[in-house]
Amino acid sequence: MDVGTLAFSALYQFGDAFAFLVLSACGLAVIFGMMGVINLAHGEFIMCGAYVTVSVAHTGLPLPLAIACGAIVSAMVGALVELIVIRHLYERPLDTIVATWGLSLIATQGTLILLGSTMAGVGTPFGSFQMGGYSYSLYRLVLFFMALAVLAGLYALFNWTRFGVMARATIQVPHMAAALGVDTRLVYSLTFALGAGLAGLTGGLYAPTMTLVPTMGTTFIMEAFVTVVVGGADVFLGTAPAAAVLAVVKSVMTSWQGQLFGQIGLLVTVIIVIRVLPKGISGFLLRERA
Amino acid sequence: MSGKIMRGLRAAALSGTLVLGSGVAFAADPIKLGVLEDQSGDFAAATIGKVHAIQLAAEEINKAGGIDGRPLELVIYDTQSDNTRYQEFMRRVLQRDKVDAVFAGFSSASREAYRPIVNQFDGLAFYNNQYEGGVCDANMIVTGAVPEQQFSTLIPWMMEKYGKKVYTLAADYNFGQISAEWVRNIVKENGGEMVGEDFIPLGVSQFSQNIQNIQKAKPDFVVTLLVGTAQASYYEQAAAASVNLPMASSVNVGQGYEHKRFKPPSLKDMYVTTNYIEEIDTPASKAFFAKFKAKFPDEPYVNQEAENSYLAVYLYKQMVERAKSTKRDDLRKEIAKGDVCMDAPEGKVCLDPKSQHMSHTIYLAKVGADHSITFPKVWEDIKPYWLGEAGCDLTKSDPSAQYTPSNPPPKP
Amino acid sequence: MNALTRFFARLEGPQTIGRGPGFWIGFLVVLTGACLYPQFSDGYTVGNTVYFFTWVFMALGLSLIWGYGGALSFGQTAFFGIAGYSYGILTINFGAAYGFTLVAVVLAVAIAALFAVLLGYFLFFGRISGVFLGIVTLSVTLVLERFMAQTAGPEWRIGSARLNGFNGMSNMPPLTIPWPGGDIVLFPDVQLYYVVLGLLVLVYLLLRILVNSSFGNVLVAIRENPERAEMLGYDIRKYQLGAFVIGAALAGLSGVLYTTWGQYITPSSMGMTAAALPIVWVAVGGRSDITSTLIGTLVVLSAFQALTIHGSQYALVVMGILLVLTVLIAPRGLILSGASRIGRLFGKRGDA
């Protein structure tokens, strides 16, 4: 087996782990990282996106459009949830654990009752390609580039748009932002909806590759929290390097000792990183910069 | 006195008990069956059908006059795929509802959670589920298939057809590890070679690395012992990466009807040994399937566990009518005779007195490119031989333990 | 004598609701009721009540760490599991004779507490706080769960005790009290009920004394404002570590009692859902008061069980709705909000 093949396969595994971590975490990074809301219903927003995507795709619409629908519906559900529940809890971030856990129970069991225990999938598009004796799924590369696109999009959104600047101002010093005429309520609503929408996008993107069941969101939860905590509060400076570091840990451990050690490696990395960098990677980077 | 009756009535109403088939008038006391199955949570997809099958059997039996003239009454609780709920409700059905027998459990962990309680109250529990085998316990009757029945048929057949190099991909817990051990032993006995084994923790849904490992090992076929809805994502991901290897399994299709849920052709060339699936084309199977669909038209799939549960009710009826008693010891005397058999939808099944496990007709189901099912081979009367041969004999002693090939019963 | 009086005077104080003869008469009435009730009930109900009681210790421990100390531990189940498994390993190896099960209880709780000392030192002396503390403790319990889940093979054994992976460990003896003329085996029935009830009352009263002592006052000061507490000269890390270890020992006690109750312990007891439950019980009852936590936990446990029995598949949905409503309508917890309302009704200052 030549070096090129080995290098490509290692890179492919890294990219695959990276994409999963970034996409799992991006919605949570906005909601937990920026707003401090511990959203245990994050997985259910992902499930919502996946279900909507597949339902729309079954009607015959092309998959990219279906995924967009999934993201938009999730964002709308997110806005609604923020309005009814989350809005009242910004002063008490720890209470959001109980509330969002309740929401996640309602969502999973509600989906089971309304839509049944499973849903037929749509199949993975694009087929596969050959590389040095291995065949790879092309769609996995699409996921990797989508992860990069999401990161770039978030960077652009928070740095170059009016909403991004207002959101960052609101989250850093809410009363100051309010004094300067920012509608902080609206900003919080939009930010939460954005996080939920990103979760829905993730669900839509992974829907073709997974079993569709009401509990599917839970498989994303651990990776999402791990990435966000390692990353810290800044969405771009945190999530991207955290996902990169964790993807290396996960893909190396998994190829060396199997999936169990990949998972345990992730959890141990979190414990170590928090001990060394209590504010996550982005806290460290920002302090260095300042 | 009247207060007591009132309390009893209220308890019956509250615990959701249901006397089915009230069209027939019964003079005698009902026989109570506890049903603890996961109607919500992770395992719901595969287990709701079990409850429906028991309801169907109970309704049929009550319409035909009950068991020895006594109506059958079901006490059903939803265990929410949660081990602690099994512990709570097993005590409840045995101590409060005072049921005569309990039908309980999907996951092996749930069975192990309730087994000490059944032993403590000396109850009788039916575990109507295929599992990793090895439970030697006089309080338990197992109607599901066990590894020796599914692998001693499947693996030699696969090796003959596709080749001797085998790769196992298994869930990283008791069921997967013990099943993988069975596969390893049978492959070795038949002169084959294990080119790789990979264990996946429960709840993992991403398989890129494992797919690559399999391609590297170049096996002739892959044995997939994946469990749970998250792990089922493997098939879609393997198909997307064009792994294109034949697969052999003891859990898929027959339990989680993956061929109905996934878009073809992700399960192409999957071979499964199962004791029942709804596609089986015999008159008995078709009649059972028709009755099931008539009562539960929305049932997504009638799987092997549903059939196991259905036949278990009739098996219980037969034992009670032969013993003229619902006492566990009287029933076990009937089992000890070794002729507790019946014609189930799958074919003839018998209870083995030594292990209280069941012989089955084993069907080899092949999934086609369009996810249609064909049956290249059927084995009749495959016995759950291992426990008895290894030294478990419930007619003589009751160790109430679970054994595995690498941890067999102590030799007498 | 004087010291003793002072000690018992701490049963009341600013950190606990309920004071004066009225409260203590009520307490005695409830206690008498709890003592007499097995006489009027069946074995199932009593055994089921014991089951509820076993969880309360873990909730009380979390109330101390989170409600009083302000440090959210999302991983109490780690100590629960460690103690449960320790009890299993010890008793399967050494049997139940000569009252060894009681020694095993103490040892198992001590092992859990020792683990908490190590973890707590790592956390509090590393200045990890807030949400991050929750995530680290959650990670610890998840690591333990994943690891234990794959120990199915016969090579995973300690002495003659097999860990037995995801299927869980069973066959450990129930609690046994040595007695002339035959050991008393405490099956989950009336006997075990009185033992656990006694433990519960003892722990409850000791915790009341603890939180009203200077230790408890400093703990609350840390919760309210850690910097200020530090400026006043307290080493807040030691206080938080102390509370953490006591809370962990109580979670361990829950773990041991649960294991003896069902003669079974499983890795799922350390999983995500299991880890979230104590937080729910404590938050619903009212985390900043141990009486509220105690009542709240019992209410939530029995309500959830009743819902599962009678609500069929809608049970989980109703539970979810109840949780959301509780957080929105009674932010301090149902029991605590209710108690302070009743307190106001009687014209007293009811809250802590």
TrEMBL record, chain A:
Protein topology in the membrane: Multi-pass membrane protein
Transmembrane ranges, per UniProt, are: 18-41, 61-86, 98-118, 138-158, 186-208, 220-248, 260-277
Q: Which Pfam families match?
A: BPD_transp_2 (PF02653)
Asked whether the UniProt record includes Chloroplast among its keywords, one would answer no
Q: Which CDD domains match?
A: TM_PBP1_LivH_like
Q: Which UniProt keywords apply?
A: Amino-acid transport, Cell membrane, Membrane, Transmembrane, Transmembrane helix, Transport
This protein's source sits in the domain of life called: Bacteria
Protein location = Cell membrane
Name the InterPro entries on file: ABC_transp_permease, BCAA_transport_permease
Q: Which family does it belong to?
A: Belongs to the binding-protein-dependent transport system permease family. LivHM subfamily.
Q: What is this protein called?
A: Branched-chain amino acid ABC transporter permease
**Organism, as annotated:** Ancylobacter radicis
From TrEMBL, chain B:
As given in the record, the signal peptide range reads 1-27
Domain (Leucine-binding protein) spans 30-370
Full protein name: Urea ABC transporter substrate-binding protein
The answer to whether keyword Signal applies is yes
The upper taxonomy is: Bacteria, Pseudomonadati, Pseudomonadota, Alphaproteobacteria, Hyphomicrobiales
Against InterPro entries, the record matches this protein to: Leu-bd (IPR028081), Peripla_BP_I (IPR028082), Urea_ABC_transptr_substrate-bd (IPR019968)
Q: Which Pfam families match?
A: Peripla_BP_6 (PF13458)
Family designation: Belongs to the leucine-binding protein family.
Q: Which Gene3D superfamilies match?
A: 3.40.50.2300
Q: Which domain of life is it from?
A: Bacteria
Instruction: State the UniProt keywords alphabetically.
Output: Signal
From TrEMBL, chain C:
Give TM regions: 21-40, 52-71, 78-96, 102-124, 131-149, 192-220, 241-258, 264-283, 290-308, 314-335
Provide the protein's localization: Cell membrane
Name of protein: ABC transporter permease
Q: How is this protein positioned relative to the membrane?
A: Multi-pass membrane protein
What CDD domains does this protein map onto? TM_PBP1_LivM_like (cd06581)
Is Cell membrane set as a keyword in this record? yes
| Domain of life according to the entry | Bacteria
Would the keyword Transmembrane helix turn up in this protein's UniProt record? yes
- One short Pfam name that applies is BPD_transp_2
InterPro entries found in the cross-reference section: ABC_transp_permease, LivM-like
The alphabetized UniProt keywords are: Cell membrane, Membrane, Transmembrane, Transmembrane helix
